[in-house]
Design goal:
48% of the residues lie in helices and 22% in strands. Strand 14 and strand 15 form a beta hairpin. The protein is flat and about 130 Å long. It is a multi-pass membrane protein. This is histidine kinase. It is found in: Cell membrane.
Length: 538
């Protein structure tokens, strides 16, 4: 008989071991649980019987020879407090019921016949008897007068139906638990089995060790993506970086057609031409890739081809963040626009024959611009954020708005604990909203004050303006997507801010007063107990 593959033996052995372990564990637990629950029920009825038989009131009603309505009421309250007790009855020596939690049975004769022993002086005992309400697990206790004579008994019981129901419930829970654990065991085994097949790529362990281990460890450590095909276009090699760049969910198996994974590939062309191709620019799943395609030569013939590629998108984005190039360009555009405006003013003064005003204007303008740039760069030492603020200061100045940075602001590159794009998006949107607000109204004072305080474990951003404020009835809606007081097609900026604050567990605080202004303060810390940006304080 042919021996089963190693991975199959491991799979079967694992399933058997898991199943056996679960059944043995649950079997022992179930037996222990049922015995414990039965003993617990016996203890409940014993304790209840001891307590009730020792009550002076119980002996009193038996000596008087008639039930008491008040006593019955007190007993009813007591029985309700007892757990897992179905029946409590108090009988005299003639087995006439003086109390029963089923009032219709009071005054009638006790049913079952297993009370004889307790009336004859036996010690308290438990029986399995049958009463008016059906089969029961009963505990009997005698009631004695002052002279020690037996004048009646107390019977406390739990119905066998209740015990059976409790047992069924326990069995059902354990059965469901067993099924769940078995299912998990099968799933885990199946996952491990599938994982083993993928790791071995269909080879025997000895062959896999010889062919793949050493080269795969080396190739997977590379940042460059690498895959290779044979002359049939079948995959013979792929590393982890290639899998990520191609957005594959799982590592493809040996022999998979490359065109099934990456239909746009041009690597098979190298098989036909036998010529290498270098620094090929292409797009894969929206990522900018630089690729080299090289034929694999064996004895002067093309035996396959390999592609080596790198994701250029990430490097481009990182470079832009590090240099702040995008925001520097925006700032230069704003400076260029401002410079043209100032040239026109100077030209006007010259045409008017007022050279003194030209001189004063140039000196004042240069001082103001230099001072603004100097203050920002001194306090904000992250180039992209500083560039954004300088650009906004210039844009606001052109519109007659004074934009300043709070004197205690501080931002150092080494202390950034969140992505710089997060700060730029939040500040850019808040400042732009304030500029638009102030530009659309007529008032004597148009000012915006920006605060940036960033330290290693937290940051506080604030933007205050002297605009007309946000009406109280609209304040609860400003972070809703598409909501805007500025017309259709707006309302995405504040929604974006809210999403970013939520993602990074920050707090948005907003204060706004009509005809006075609006203030936004956003706080981020590394502590986990902060509420999200949904819970802003307006």
């Amino acid at each position: 008989m042919k021996e089963k593959p190693l991975e199959h033996q491991i799979y079967v052995s694992q399933i058997f071991s898991i199943t056996l372990a679960i059944l043995l564990t649950l079997g022992v637990s179930l037996h222990y649980n049922l015995v414990t629950k039965r003993n617990s029920l016996d203890m409940n009825i014993k304790n209840a019987g001891i307590f009730i038989s020792g009550m002076p009131e119980v002996a009193d009603i038996l000596k008087k020879g008639q039930p008491s309505a008040a006593f019955n009421k007190r007993m009813d309250l007591l029985v309700k407090e007892l757990d897992y007790i179905d029946v409590v009855t108090i009988c005299n020596k003639d087995s006439i019921r003086f109390y029963h939690n089923n009032k219709a049975l009071i005054g009638k004769t006790f049913v079952g016949g297993d009370e004889a022993a307790i009336l004859n002086g036996a010690a308290p005992y438990i029986t399995n008897g049958k009463g008016t309400l059906g089969n029961q697990r009963r505990a009997f206790f005698s009631i004695k007068n002052e002279q020690g004579e037996i004048i009646g008994f107390v019977m406390v019981s739990v119905l066998t139906a209740s015990i059976s129901q409790l047992t069924r419930n326990i069995l059902l829970v354990f059965l469901l638990l067993a099924l769940m654990l078995l299912s998990i065991g099968f799933i885990v085994s199946e996952l491990l089995y599938s994982r083993l097949k993928k790791i071995l790529l269909g080879y025997k362990p000895e062959e896999f060790r010889k062919i793949h281990i050493e080269r795969k460890e080396v190739l997977d450590a590379l940042e460059e993506g690498i895959f290779a095909i044979n002359t049939e276009g079948e995959l013979i090699l792929i590393n982890e970086s290639a899998k990520k760049i191609l957005d594959l969910d799982t590592m493809p198996e040996y022999g998979t057609k490359l065109t099934e994974l990456y239909p746009e590939t041009k690597l098979p062309n190298v098989l036909k031409t036998g010529l290498p191709e270098y620094n090929i620019s292409l797009m894969i799943n929206g990522k900018h890739i630089m690729s080299n395609r090289i034929p694999i030569m064996e004895n002067g013939k093309t035996a396959g081809a390999v592609s080596i590629f790198r994701n250029k998108t990430e490097y481009t984005r990182l470079a832009e963040e590090l240099t702040g190039a995008r925001y520097m360009v925006e700032t230069l555009r704003a400076l260029n626009h401002e410079f043209k405006n100032k040239l026109h003013i100077i030209l006007g003064f010259i045409e008017m024959g007022q050279p003194k005003k030209v001189t004063d204007f140039i000196i004042n303008t240069s001082m103001a611009s230099t001072l603004a740039v100097s203050e920002v760069t001194k306090q904000i030492q992250v180039s992209s954020i500083a560039a954004l603020l300088i650009g906004k200061i210039i844009r606001a100045g052109e519109l007659g708005i004074r934009l300043t940075i709070k004197p205690d602001s501080s931002c150092v590159e080494s202390e950034l604990h969140l992505p710089v794009d997060l700060y730029i998006t939040i500040l850019g949107n808040l400042i732009e909203n304030a500029i638009e607000e102030l530009n659309d109204i007529s008032c004597d004072i148009k000012e915006i004050e920006v605060g940036i305080n960033i330290w290693q474990s937290g940051s506080i951003l604030s933007v205050d303006d002297t605009g007309k404020g946000i009406p109280a009835d609209l304040q609860d809606h400003i972070f809703e997507k598409g909501f805007s007081t500025k017309g259709d097609g707006r309302g995405s900026g504040m929604f974006l801010i809210k999403e970013l604050v939520d993602q990074h567990h920050g707090i948005i605080e907003m204060e706004s007063e009509e005809n006075t202004g609006t203030s936004f303060t956003i706080t981020f810390t590394e502590e986990d107990h902060h509420v999200s940006g949904n819970n802003y304080r307006g």
